[in-house]
Amino acid sequence: MQPLPNTTCPLCGGSNQCTPANTGRFDPECWCTKAAISPEALAKIPPELVNQACLCPRCAAGLPPVMPHSEL
Ligand SMILES: [Zn+2]
Question: What is the dihedral of CA 19, 8, 24, 60, to 10 degrees?
Fold first, then answer.
């Protein structure tokens, strides 16, 4: 089984920094193996993308996505 080459976060569209997605291998350790993923973040992932793409570290931690064009 090959890792999916999905290198973007399904919540914010930013880089998820997923090591398997970037290298095509599961053996290099990924940051997500040590991170605690926020249940709120998991609940927001579109169903078709669950288990298809890694979250980025920011979304995984439950922080709001970085919005470069925010009107705030
Ligand atoms: Zn994200």
Answer: 40
How far apart are the CA of 41 and the centre of ligand 1, in A? 9
- Per domain, the residue ranges of the chain are 1-61
> How far, in Å, is the centroid of ligand 1 from the Cα of 37?
12
Q: Cβ(32)–Cβ(18) under 8 Å? A: yes
CA dist 43 and 50 (Å) reads 9
Residue 33: pLDDT over 90: no
Please give the model's pTM, rounded to 2 decimal places: 0.77
SS (H, E, C) 32-63: HHCCCCCHHHHHHCCHHHCCCCCCCHHHHCCC
What pLDDT does residue 38 have? 93
